[in-house]
């Protein structure tokens, strides 16, 4: 039986008419065998910073009481978010890849026969195709954004399997919509994707967010993740025997 990899996806500024000029899609991934250990460690960080009550007996119910999100980065929670970033970069089992699409409003995807939904799937395909390894099986989780999330997940699953000639469903085991407040690594994907999106949008209105971005830069040893290539692709890893960052 193949070893399994879990991939947790999130997106920022993905709506067609949201007034934002970029779109970012990100994915955090880890061995399935390490999932419980990683989830528990993130749960412990929430307890350490008093973000969830210690007396709840049901861990799943308890962990859902505070969701890690880029939009929640604030002065009072900055130390917590720095701990989350440190945990990511100190853990050799974790990786992250992000795809940034600039000048979203200028894209003429309709001229190439695409709808916004099919373009969205194509960008997810571009994000994931590099992560997928034919020697492993993969469980892919995408955040539920609307009532059509299940339909989009099914379409993405079909596209990925066809590309990998994975008719026996050995490489892409499933693409499943999840509620991010229940899934710690989907929350980390939101945090990292949100940070990259913030930089690409040229924002600096929040001092805590700017400080967290500087912390990410120090830990990743990658000072400039506001790339000008289109689309921009960045991949970060936790501690490995070789380099910390791979750029595609």
Number of strand segments: 7
**SSE order, as H and E?**
EEHHHEHEHEHHEE
The number of distinct structural domains comes to 1
* Biggest β-sheet description: 7 strands, mixed
Cross-sheet strand order for the largest sheet: 5-4-1-2-3-6-7
* CATH topology name: Nucleotidyltransferase, domain 5
CATH architecture: 2-Layer Sandwich
Observed structural traits:
single chain; about 250 residues; alpha/beta; Nucleotidyltransferase, domain 5; seven-stranded mixed beta sheet; 7 helices; 7 strands; disordered C terminus
Question: Could you outline the blueprint of secondary structure elements for this entry?
Answer:
Blueprint: E1 4-12, E2 23-31, H1 35-48, H2 59-63, H3 78-90, E3 95-101, H4 116-128, E4 137-143, H5 149-163, E5 172-178, H6 184-200, H7 207-220, E6 232-237, E7 245-247
Parallel strand pairs: 1-4, 4-5
Antiparallel strand pairs: 1-2, 2-3, 3-6, 6-7
In short:
With 248 residues, this protein is of the alpha/beta class.
Report on this structure.
The chain is of the alpha/beta class and 248 residues long. It has a single domain (4-247), classed as Nucleotidyltransferase, domain 5 (2-Layer Sandwich). The protein is built from 7 helices and 7 strands. The chain has a 7-stranded mixed β-sheet with strand order 5-4-1-2-3-6-7, with helices on both faces. Helix 5 (149-163) links the parallel strand 4 and strand 5 (172-178). Residues 227-231 and 240-248 have low confidence and may be disordered.
């Amino acid at each position: 039986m193949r070893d399994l990899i879990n991939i947790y996806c999130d997106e920022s500024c993905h709506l067609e008419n949201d007034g934002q000029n970029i779109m970012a899609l990100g994915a955090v991934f880890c061995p399935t065998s390490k999932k419980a250990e990683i989830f528990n460690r993130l749960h412990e960080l929430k307890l350490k910073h008093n973000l969830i009550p210690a007396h709840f007996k049901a861990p799943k119910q308890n962990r859902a009481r505070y969701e890690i999100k880029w939009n929640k980065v604030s002065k009072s929670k900055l130390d917590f978010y720095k701990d989350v970033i440190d945990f990511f970069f100190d853990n050799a089992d974790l990786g992250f890849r992000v795809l940034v699409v600039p000048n979203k409003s200028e894209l003429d995807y309709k001229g190439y026969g695409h709808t916004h939904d099919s373009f969205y799937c194509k960008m997810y395909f571009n994000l994931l195709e590099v992560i997928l390894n034919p020697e492993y099986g993969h469980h892919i989780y995408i955040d539920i954004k609307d009532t059509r999330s299940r339909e989009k997940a099914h379409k993405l699953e079909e596209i990925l399997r066809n590309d990998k000639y994975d008719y026996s469903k050995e490489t892409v085991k499933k693409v499943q919509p999840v509620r991010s407040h229940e899934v710690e690594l989907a929350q980390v994907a939101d945090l990292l994707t949100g940070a990259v999106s913030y930089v690409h949008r040229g924002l600096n209105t929040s001092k805590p967010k700017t400080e967290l971005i500087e912390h990410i830069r120090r830990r990743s040893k990658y000072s400039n993740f506001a790339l000008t290539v289109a689309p921009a692709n960045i991949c970060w890893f936790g501690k490995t025997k070789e380099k910390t960052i791979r750029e595609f």
